[in-house]
Amino acid sequence: MLQKSKRSARDSRVAGLRGFRVAGFLFASLYLLNPLTLKPVFAQDLKAIEEGAKKEGKLNLYGSMREDEAKAVLDTFEKRYPGIKIDYFRSSEDKLLSRILAEAKAKSHNFDALITTAAAYTKSLGLALKWTPPSTSGIIKELLDPDGMTTPVYINTNVIQYNTKQVAKADVPKSYEDLTQPKWKGKLCLEDSDFEWFVGLQSFLGKEKALALFKRIAANQPAVRNGHGLVSDLVAAGECPIAINNYGNQVARAQKKGAPTDFVAINPVVTIVAPVVVSKNAPHPNAGKLYANWITSKEGQEFIVKNGGRIPVRVDVDPDPPKLTKGLKLHVASRMEGKELKEVQALYRQIWQGR
Amino acid sequence: MTPLVMLLYGSLQSGFMVGESAFTFANYLEAYSDREFYSLFLNSLIYALGVSLFTFLIGTLLAWICERTNTPGRKTFALLAVTTYIIPGVLLTISWILLLSPRIGLFNNILVYLFGFAEPPLTIYSYWGMIWTASVHLYPLNFLMMSAAFRSMDASFEEAAWAAGANNFTCLRQITLKILRPMLLSTMLILFIRGIESFEVPALIGIPARIFVFTTKIYEAASGFPPALGLAGANASILLLISILGVYLYQKLTARSESFTTITGKAYRPRVIDLGRWKYVFSAGCVLFFILTLLVPVLALLGTSFSGHMVALTPEAFKNFTLDEYRFVLSYPIITRAFRNSILLAVGSATAVMLLTSIIAWITVRTQIPGRWLLDALTFIPIAVPGVIMGVSMIFVYLTLPIPIYGTLWILLVAYVTLYMPYGIRVASATMVQIHKELEEASTASGASWAQTFFRIVLPLLLPGFLSGWIYVAIISLRELSASIFLVGQGTEVLSTVVFALWDSGNITGVAALGVLMTLFLIVMALVVQTWQRKLGILRE
């Protein structure tokens, strides 16, 4: 669809005549009809958004992509849609949300679009716009938001990571059960906030059974660590031969840098989705929408694979290496907040740290 | 004032900044009735006491060697001590893991190899490991403050002691340390609070060692979403209590301030102590100390930064030598801007903090205005406010007030000044106590205005303390993260947020390369400043 945008520009004079009728139809289609069946109308819709975005001339984007990764992506976007300048604010997921909330409390609405794993919280806060970008049709169905308010951009998989020098081929764990073997005593580690994985496994195995399994693994005294990158590096350095859980893309990146490490994914794989959300009170709503659509399009997705080593969400784009998702049963993790999160945290700490 | 109000107000709200708010004591109830609270408090106390005592010993001894003795190489030692503090805390902590871990620690491997121990003899995952790692990073703070104190003290008491037949050690113990009591107490107080507040070591070593401290709790409350800022605030209130108690004790113990004045109208110049042949022993000791606490950890960092991933320090580690990480860091899109912003902010906040606190110190020490101790306490209290609460409050305050500094460097400057006034005020007031008021009286008697007296008499006399406070505030500003992370925007990024971005996305080798570059940069800067000072004759030799 994006590739067609040049041609549509030439058609714009013709389109002008039909403008009124199209707008009315568009309005109806957005609210009444299934968006996936209405491709031609959406091309028109996208056109209007693009025009609008150019008039706005600016996009305030909040996200957790590192500046170096983001710069290449943003430059490409700015080149593709000249006249739109991106103002990018980068922070970790919870800090982004806190900033957005503080801004909202002061009634100063600044962000247009937000891309981070915690973006879904904006739904319950009433700050997300209900809007589905046209490019959604190419996204893996299991990853989609049933409410249609957030759109997946990249994912993280929860896998077992190990050091290939310290763990012999025959010893590589094939299940979580294998981690209960006494030979791993003092050789395991775990990040201190993998709550999604913790809850996900409970839902697959049943709470009782999962907790019993966790307790038997915990008997091997895993060292609890703070930060997924740190865990990955400590595994690579041999300080910790096996990480009970870590992020797949973290391991893949370490591998690319020559670190002696690999991962085992146990089906079903708890998957964390980082979606894009367009702000309900966006100062530049069209620019926000245009970016959300582009980053989830084939072009945008190929870019974040090549440039950031991210795991893409589209059926027509493969991750690098493909084994990050190939043949895996991806299970989208539910995000927790408030009281539920607090209880999970307490249980997590009790089991893994004996607190 | 703002941060304190925010801390107290926030801790009494149910959903501070992040939801429906209502007045409540629930946060305090939850914080103080938590079954972990008392064990955490005890752990924190042991850890902070250990760190402050150990840091104090290292810093004071080193300051004494550098300022008061003729030990060869003392200028270089002073420079190295300050350099240690610029290395990001996470990196130094990781270096120590690579050196002291029972599994891959280099020192353990060497000891096992040399003496054939069955078990690795050292472990970083203990109280001792934590205290050591934190202390060898924190001592420069103590070093700076004590250097200033040694530099501006009257030596006549010491000379009297020597004349009476005391040896160097007795003199140090009986006279020097007693005269310096205000500065010693100030330093101990700050060190203790820094120890309680420090985050890197408890997070990287404490958590795997299962030694949980107070900061772990505040961090847990403030991270995740929605952040329980009210709960973090309630937890931080214990720091507030300690700070107020500390200032009160300090005021009490230095109340008879006349007895500490050492800078009077008489000529004074601290005597350099001739250590005789011992000076070589001291020099060798210092060299060994810096090899152990600076060179070896930095080498460990270099190893990580050159190999693309974290490696155990074995000969094999250097096989994958690559400069990729340096290329990456130098081509990082916002790196020059972040360097520039950080330096502007460091210089700006250090200057503002020291000027403001000098004036406040003058008021609290010199004048008889009632309630002046309160002014001192108020300036000091922000030390208890966690950076994240500061950051979120600042967003709220400056988006609500019609002061258009949101998204500019100014908001960062305001945050830094507020956060670091407490450090400035301790240095400024401890130095001020040492200056006898007769010098100002002479100035006023000769017809000078208050401003003339302050800027031409008081400030120059404060200079040694002022400078060391300035350097300290400048360095900690360079490292400030928890408030900056909320306040930076496009164009106002700072180094610490770049370091955090790399760390947060798991690029530890990138952080290592950036850390090495920052350290080099600081050494070059310090050398430039030193030569420049020598040329202008500012530094009193």
Describe the fold and architecture.
The complex is a heterodimer of chains A (355) and B (541). By secondary structure, chain A is of the alpha/beta class. Chain A is built from 13 helices and 10 strands. In chain A, strands 1, 2, 3, 4, 5, 6, 7, 8, 9 and 10 form a 10-stranded mixed beta sheet that branches. Chain A is globular, with a radius of gyration of 22 Å. Chain B contains 24 helices and no strands. The interface between A and B is large, with 57 and 57 residues.
Low-confidence stretches of chain A: 1-41
* Backbone shape of chain B: globular
Total beta strand runs of chain B: 0
* SSE order of chain B: HHHHHHHHHHHHHHHHHHHHHHHH
Number of helices of chain B: 24
Q: What's the CATH architecture of the largest domain in chain A? A: 3-Layer(aba) Sandwich
CATH topology of the largest domain in chain A: D-Maltodextrin-Binding Protein, domain 2
**In CATH terms, what is the fold-level topology of chain B?**
MetI-like fold
As for the number of domains of chain A, it is: 2
| Intertermini distance of chain A | 54 Å
Shape of chain A: globular
Question: What are the segments of chain B in which pLDDT stays under 50 over at least 5 consecutive residues?
Answer: 537-541
Main sheet record of chain B: none
CATH class membership of the largest domain in chain A: Alpha Beta
Helix tally of chain A equals 13
Question: What percent of residues of chain A adopt helix (DSSP H or I)?
Answer: 40-55%
Write the layout of secondary structure elements.
The complex is a heterodimer of chains A (355) and B (541).
Chain A (H helix, E strand, L loop, with lengths): L4 H6 L1 H21 L6 H18 L1 E6 L3 H14 L4 E6 L2 H13 L7 E3 L5 H4 L26 E13 L24 E4 L3 H11 L1 H12 L4 E3 L2 H10 L4 E6 H9 L4 E4 L4 E10 L6 H11 L2 H11 L21 E3 L5 H16 L2
Parallel strand pairs in A: 1-2, 1-3, 5-6, 5-7, 9-10
Antiparallel strand pairs in A: 3-9, 4-7, 4-8, 4-9
Helix pairs in contact in A: 2-3, 3-11, 4-12, 7-8
Chain B lengths: L1 H10 L14 H8 L3 H32 L5 H11 L4 H12 L5 H10 L11 H25 L4 H8 L4 H12 L1 H17 L2 H7 L7 H9 L6 H25 L24 H30 L16 H7 L4 H32 L5 H9 L6 H14 L8 H26 L3 H8 L4 H30 L4 H4 L7 H10 L3 H29 L5
Helix pairs in contact in B: 1-13, 1-18, 2-13, 3-4, 3-7, 3-10, 4-7, 4-14, 4-24, 5-7, 5-11, 5-14, 7-10, 7-11, 7-21, 8-9, 10-13, 10-19, 12-13, 13-17, 14-24, 15-24, 16-17, 16-19, 16-21, 19-21, 20-21, 23-24
